[in-house]
Amino acid sequence: MKRRINIKRIKLTPYEKRLEAAADEYRPVSKAEFDEIAEALERRRKDAVLNLRINQGDLDNLKSKARKLGVKYQTFISEILHRIAMS
Question: How many domains does the chain contain in total?
Answer without folding.
Answer: 2
